[in-house]
Structures are given as structure tokens and as C-alpha cells.
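[Q] Does anyone have a clean C-alpha cell version of this?
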Amino acid sequence: MISSAIKKEQFIWIGSIVVFMLLVVLPFYAPLNQGTAELLTEGDFSGTLWNVRYEAPAAALLLPLLLISAILAMSPIRKKLKLRLFLAISLLGITLFLVQVVLLTPELKLTSGAFILFFTFLTLLALTLSRMGIIRGDSFISGSILSISVLLVIFILFPLLVILVRSVVVEGSLKPGNFIRTLTAYPSTMRILKNSILMAGTVGVLSTIIGLAFALVVERSRFRLRQFMRAFSLLPIITPPFVIGLAIIFMFGRAGWFTSGILGLRVNFVFGYFGIVLAQTLSFAPMAFLILSGVIRSLDSALEEASYTLGSSRWHSFKTIIWPLLRPGLANAFLLSVIESLADFGNPILLGGDFDVLATSIYLAIVGRYDEMLAACLGLVLLSITLTTFIIQRYWVGNRSYVTVTGKPSRNRLLPLPKGLDYTLVGGTILWVVLTVTLYGSVITGSFVKLWGINYEFTLQHYKYFLEVGLESYFTTLKLAAISAPITATMGLMVAYLVSRYTFFGKKTFEFTSMLSFAIPGTIVGIGYVMTFNTGPLFFAGTAMILIICFVFRNMPVGIRSGMAALQQIDVSLEEASITLGASNFYTLRKVVLPLIKPAIFSGLVFAFVRSMTAISAVIFLVTAKTKLATTVILGRIEGGKLGIATAYCTVLIVTMMIAIGIMYFFTNRTSKQNNAVAV
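[A] Here you go.
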């Protein structure tokens, strides 16, 4: 660790010399099939900046710039002039780097030397902007803003741009009409679009209604076991995407326990619109419940009490007071359910039948037709719908004010719902819980029988197969999820901290881009990454790194929202006092902020882990034989008709998720008790 006594000029001088020495040895580029370690082992230094003066002249100029920055750091010239020179050097270095990246042939990829070089000039730029006062905050803050901005551009915006280019560029020529021609040449486009909109609209309405029912029961009902129902309502969130679809097949399919075993019917009605809507409603109603539960909990009962005092009935008070205040939450839940429905891949691929939707059509365009242009065009259609919905949800619903609490909340007791409404909601939600438990029970049971619908004899054969063949993919998934989760939580926390606490140029764009991946369907992310990172200069295809990157930027928005919610409860004066007393921004974040938001950190960490373990739509295009994930193996087993093995995989993943959630609650509750003890 560098001593705090070293001045920034000395840091620049030492850092420039160290990087210069590294870049003499580390390669700037390499062939696609070779890595840095292989080149160093073989003693191949042909790709270093020292040896690419002719092949990469723009990059070769970067080494002299490093030496100039080191000399400038130790020179006695005026501070203002020195900062201007540092700004010019850093901007020139970044510009030359980008020029060389553009000129690099697709057969070559950037390696560790290139990334070290780029972030060295980016660090120099951050130090300069901080000292010039352009970014308010020390070098840690300015460096974080610049670094995260670069990553957002590379791994969120750039893949979207590549998809756009692929849909309008044909053989190197710009042809905007190609987008329309490609879609019209595909005869099912309009039918698929109508199917997707119909499905998303239906799921949005049903998920919102069911989520509202659960929220009212849990928060306002007289039912004594209402908190017990919360756990079952959230169960679909922590399970793999195939579980619901498999359960519906087991219960209502052609050989289903209910349809065939009890009713004696052999029907296929679950394959198509009805089956997808049922599966997605079961999957996304919990999300609507979480949104509406918070809205209902924040309502001030003083308004209702005043209504009752004036002689109003409970029904009239609910209709004229509670219902209008729920509208923003209802709109939020509906729009988010629509986004999730459009983006869902697992349930439509399993239950779709001949009911084609955009998410599965994009997958089949790549896997079945090998038509990247069609996939890009369909992807743009899906992306435009989800982005429009996301923008409406974010800027229209998010900016409306329905404030009922202006100071300390005055509600001291629970005001129950009208009895008729209460009993109706409790009855409906109990039936829904019974359906959910039955469906999940069928999946777990299916993993212990030889062949569901035909032979219900008890067996451990499926788990034996899992132990013999499936452990490799399970541990690969576990390892990658464990690596990506802390990175995701850290990135989310840093974005939340920067957006909540600092004002800088492009802040709104920075925040919007960081949340954008929430609105991008997984299939779009997958094909975007395949098209972008499958050739040089940024080559990650076929590696575990691309999966980790995908997990991080797909799951980061939830960590951002969790961090922002926690930071809003912390008085800024605590941080200001720390900085006033001479502490750096990094020290203040580590010693003051982080201990106060541990529950939010644990929540973001576990959520990122759970989502990485159950991801399918984005990673289906990115996995290889060396990086098989549990969800892709499950999909393969389902497509091969080996449902017993698939359910065994799903059961193991469910148990893993429950253990992760249990650990989260243990640490969260322990931290909360410690904080309360300190406060007392």
C-alpha cells in the first residue's frame, strides 16, 4: 500500500515508470487463440509496445507519453500549467489508444498490457480532473466515475450499437431499408409481435392483480398467518426459470397428475398462450407484490381515520382514499411485469408450442436458422418495446407525487380492510399459495420417481446421475456466481453512492445507462455479446470472463436500487464531518458508509448470486463445452425428454438458493441487532 505521505506527483512518477516497465514485457495484442500467460511462457514478446512500432504506430507513441508524464510529475513548473499538460497528455494517450484499437485487425485481440495502459491514462485523467476541480471529489471519486462510465459504454451501450449496425449494414454498406425488408421477408413477424404484446399485457394485468391481493393481505388483513404467506409468494423469485414450466407440465400436461391422473384427460392446452401466461404470472406476481407491499406499508392511516370519523364506510374509504393512492404503485408493478414478460425466455421456450414470441424467435434465429441479421432485427423490435415501457415507468410514473407522509408517520395501528374484501382476498391468496406449493411439490416429487405420469416408483437414479455427470456444471455455475456476486454488489454500491452523493457532468446519463440493463431482455444481451466480443479487438467469447461480465451488468440495477434506498436513510453530515476532519473519500466510504448499509450490501450480494445461478436467457448464447452452466444443462435435458434428471438439477438449485437466502437473513438480522445495540 502506498503511504499517504507520498505526494500525487510522486505517485504519477512512480506509477508511470512501473507501467512503462510492465509494458516492455506484457503484450499489447495477441492472436485470438492465445493469452498473455501462453505468450510469456513461450517467450513471445512480438506483441509488446516495444516491438510494435511498425504494426501499431499509434500505440507505440504511448510509451514516450508515459515517460513524459513521469518527467513532468517531478518538474518544478507552475501547478496550473502542470495540470493542463497532464490533461493534454492523458487525453492524447486515450485518443491514440482508441485510434489503435480501431485500426487493429479482427484477428488480433487486446491483452492485459493494453488494459493496463488504457486504465493508466484514465487514472492520470481522473487525478487531473480531481485536482483541477472539474470533478468535485478526490481522485478516488473521479476515477470511479470515469472507470464505471467506460465499463458501461463497453458492456451495455456498445453491444446495443453493434446490434443496430448489424440490422442496417449489409456487406459494409449502410442500408436502413434492410431492417424493414428483413422483417417483412420473415412471414411470422407480425404474428410474433402480436403474440408478444398480448402475452405481456395479460401477464402484466394478472401479475398486478395477484400482487395487489397478496400485498393487501400481508399488510392490512386480519388473517393471523398473513406473514407466513409472504414466504410462499416470494418462492418463484429464487428458483430457476424452468421450475414453473416443468411443474405446470407435471400437473396439467398430457400425462399430468391432475389432468390425466384425476380427470382422465390427455390434453395439451398448457402448451401455448395459456401455459405461458400461467407460468409467467406465477413467476412475476411476486415482483408486483414487493412493489405494492412497500406502497401500502407507507400509507398514513390518519387519512382513513379521518374518513371514518366523518362517517364514511370502510368500502367508501378504500375506494376514495386507498385506491387512488395505490395508482402509482399499480402502474409501476404493471409496467415492470410487462418488461419481465417480454424479456422472459425460459417459460416460452418450454411451454410455447406453436405460440411464438420475440424472445424465443431471436434464439431460434441464431440457433436454428443461423441468421444473425434476422436475430438483430427481431432484437431491435423487442428492445424498442421494452425500452419504451422502461422509459414510461421511469419518467412518467416515477416523477408523479402521491405524498401522504410529510413528517414522522402517524399510523400507530393496523387498519383492517372491509370484511367482505378481506375474506375474498384471503381466500383467493390461499388458493394461489396452495397452487404454488402443489406445483413446486410436483417438481421435487418428480425428481424421486422413475418417470412422471407413467411410473411413480421411488428412485434415486436421477440424483445418482447428477452426482456422476452434473456436478461439473453445478460447481462451474456456483464458482462463477460466487465470483460475480461481490463484483456486482460493489459496482451497484459504487454507482448508487456516486449518484446519491455527487454532482457531475452527465450524471443523469450515467444513472440511466447503469439501470438500462434492467430493461434489456436477456436474449438481446446474449446476441449483443456474441456479435461484439466474438472477434478482436475485444475478444471474450468462449471464456468464463464473458459469463462473469454478463452476470455483473445484468444484475447490477438491483444492487444500485438497494444501495440508493439505504443511502437515503443516512445523513450526509456524517460523511461531510469525516471529510472535513481530513479523511479521504475512500476512507469515509469504507469506515462510515459501509458499516451503516451492511443489510443492503448483503441483500444485493445474495440477489446477484441467486440471479447468476438461475440465469438462462443471456448466457444460452455464451456457454461452451468448457463453461457449461446448470441452467443450460437443465434446458438440454428437458429438450432431450429427460425430465426426471432436469427436476433433480432444479431441486438441487432450489436448495442452494434457500441456503443462500438463509445466510443472508442470518447476517442481516445479526447486523441489525448489532447496530441497534450500538445505538442504544
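[Q] Thanks! Anything notable?
[A] Residues 1-6, 400-412 have pLDDT under 50 and may be disordered.
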